[in-house]
Write the structure tokens for this entry.
Amino acid sequence: MFPNPTPLTDSNPDSLFKRLKAGLARTRAGLAALWSSSSVDNTSIDALETALLRADVGIEVTALIVEQLRQTAKQQPQIDMRACVTAQMLRILTPSTPPLTLPTSDKPCSILIVGVNGVGKTTTVGKLAKQFQTQGCSVMLAAGDTFRAAAVEQLQTWGERNQVPVIAQTMGADSAAVIYDAMQAAQARCTDVLLADTAGRLHTKSNLMEELKKVKRTMARQNPHAPHQVWLVLDAGTGQNALQQAEQFHNAVGVNGVIITKLDGTAKGGMVLAIAHKLQLPIRYIGTGEAIDDLRRFNAEEFVHALLDPA
Ligand SMILES: Nc1nc2c(ncn2[C@@H]2O[C@H](COP(=O)(O)OP(=O)(O)O)[C@@H](O)[C@H]2O)c(=O)[nH]1
Ligand SMILES: [Mg+2]
């Protein structure tokens, strides 16, 4: 019912892999010049270090990759630097892709989407609705961002686009109450998946975290296993700052999956490695555009190839 990521498919010219590659073009461009040198020496390692830092891979992961490369190069100066970096990135990212197992009998499977303002939560809820429907699941949306009227309308538009029901109240309503109502409605209609959108006012304001904690408690009152998943949406363009956001949300509501959006058009796509290394949380999906199909299950192998392979 919830299949794992599709395997690497770069044989089809129109494949999603090509689109992912196009999305990562800016990050890949920063690394491409490195692969021309035939041997690994101090100059090429220094250039790699700079390029990784520019791609926002972060200091820790860059140090790991560079140190490993130095060690390997000592024994084999003629090693293929790209192959070596590919292997190391895979080692860092692969633990972040455990299979996604969602309950199939405990309906609805409830997924709470959290994150700061503007990262792409509502858009991601809309894209996820399509993904789950494509997998044969019935979907309902809960308009838990009651802070802005536009947020409710935006979610309703995604509901219409996907032809799925949206449970909403007026602006200023209690977010927990909206999501509670949605859980009841989803249960009554035997809906498979309930996707709950939330507000993202400044994460430094403790009232957002308190509101999210209340949402969680209220959901658990309806079903002790709810929410089944709490997915944190992070904007790739924020680079290393995303780590702080992740810590705050994780401490407040216990995140068990990460979605990284806006990998298109950023040169900071390397932040995915920093997130994987630091958070040790599953990276579930990546967003590479504003359209409904611009969301992809995260696949470490596919991501590293899209990042490092020549255009
Ligand atoms: N380029 C790009 N834009 C995105 C992506 N995801 C969301 N957006 C855009 O980011 C903006 C904020 O998205 P929204 O869903 O309203 O964020 P929210 O405040 O977290 O709910 C909108 O203009 C979206 O179209 C993505 O993967 N790539
Ligand atoms: Mg929103």
Notes: Strands lie at 109-114, 139-144, 166-167, 193-198, 229-235, 257-261, 283-287, 295-297. The mean pLDDT is 89.
